[in-house]
Amino acid sequence: MPYSDNYWCKEEILPEKELEELQMKRLRWVIRHAYENVPFYRRRLKEAGVHPDDIKRGEDVAKIPFTTKEDLRDNYPFGLFAVPKEKIVRIHTSSGTSGKPKVVGYTRADLENWVDMVARCLYMVGIREKDVFQNMVSYTFFTGGLGLHYGAEKIGAMVVPAGTGNTERQIRYMLDFGTTAIHCTPSYAMHIKEVAESMGIRPDEIGIKTGCFGAEPWSENTRKRLENAFNLKAFDSYGLSEMNGPGVAFECQEQDGLHIWMDHYFVEIVDEEGEVVGDGEKGELILTPLTKEALPLLRYRTGDLTKLMTEKCACGRTHPRIHRIFGRTDDMIVVRGINVFPSQIEHVLMRIPEAGDHFQVVITRNGPLDEITVKVEVVDDVFTGELSDLERLKRKIQNELRKELNLRTNVELVEKGTLERFRGKARRVVDLRKEL
Ligand code: DLL
Q1: Domains within the chain, CATH numbers bracketed
Q2: Is the CB of residue 138 below 6 angstroms from any atom belonging to ligand 1?
Q3: What is the SS3 assignment for 331?
Q4: Whose CA is nearest to atom 16 of ligand 1?
């Protein structure tokens, strides 16, 4: 049962002081829990000369060493679990770009908390009992499938457990079942739009009102495109397997930053040296889950770049917001000494009307110099038959990219349908330098 018409639970609007007290109480609990039940943490903390009793205030957390993705991999599969295996009721995995997958586990209480957090997010964007919620992400090891499924079910929406792929059938089901809300990656949503059009169906007439999009970086201009194409309101959804999965942070109706749930996570933003940055400064997001029994990761380096927004939000929730993720420390491309994030390129392209919805970035090395080529699908009516029109468009895109990135790029215009499509997370960058 929801707490009120506007909020799923009362924790969303806890007065700041109470929220802080709750957070500190849980923070002390989780540190002690990790110390007492995970040999890895006992050793780590001892080596750093820190004891759980030393953590009295939020600032004291900085004494604790970070936990990294490598720590999880090194302790594959269950080495960082803080409860015996029989208390684990589910696992998920997340495969990164290299090496062993990260395995995450949940106790029954962890699952209950997680489902509740996801329900809180979905309720916040207006999902209610009357909604038909089509969940179009993988239901297997990826946390997005079951995570959103149970969250939407908890609210009482009718959940369509569609999973990924077979896009034409997805669209037919939307029409047959009266789907009002969808969940998928933003890149898959772009693909759905295109497939609907090829079926002679106008995406804005399908009847979807709410789009929950996440699991990969996307830009404000992509939001505009999706909202216009489907006539829906699009919300950014952030999470990672190591912190349960989706439901860590989510946009509210204001669509200005993602509320991050302070009763379940302790949040820090650090610079490249690992020092906590000043209020509102950009840096890497560090999270400590506060209620996780199975996997109490302390000061986990997410690799995601954002900033904290502490101003009050018009929606009334007292939890601060994070800015939409700028990129990941490990998907930053360094080209001729300049840092580039694929999301910056996306932002530029998605505001150019002649650019289609799909692009790819190819990095090569030409002698000592890195070359970056942006392949851009163009919308059909760009092909006027005049080469000079294409040349003009190419230069326009090049100039816009140069303004944003401070970097000269090659631009290659390609026909719609040329580049690979993705059902899950898009892989936009092909770095051929490593192979040369
Ligand atoms: O992607 C969990 C999730 C599922 C989130 C469904 C949202 C919706 P992982 O596969 O472990 O978990 O990948 C986590 O994906 O560290 C970010 O780098 C990236 N990511 C997730 N959401 C966003 C987002 C899920 N909204 C990693 N914007 C994270 C940008 C995102 N990046």
Answers
A1: 1-327 (3.40.50.12780), 333-435 (3.30.300.30)
A2: no
A3: helix
A4: 240
Cα–Cα dist 405/395, whole Å: 15
> What digits encode the pLDDT tens for the residues 347-366?
999 999 999 999 999 999 98
- Cα–Cα distance, 264 to 53 (Å, whole number): 21
The verdict on the CB of residue 240 being under 6 Å from ligand 1 is: yes
| CA 194 vs CA 83, 191, 353: distances in Å | 47, 5, 15
Q: What is the pLDDT of residues 121-135, one digit of tens each?
A: 999 999 999 999 999
Structure confidence by residue, pLDDT tens digits, 34-56: 999 999 999 999 999 999 999 99
Question: Which protein residue has the closest C-alpha to ligand 1 atom 12?
Answer: 240
Q: Which atom of ligand 1 is nearest to the CA of 148?
A: 6
Arithmetic mean of pLDDT over the chain: 96
| Whether residue 232 has pLDDT greater than 90 | yes
SS3 375: strand
- Give the integer Cα–Cα distance in Å for 211 and 234: 5
User: Ligand 1 in contact with 320 (CB < 6 A)?
Assistant: no
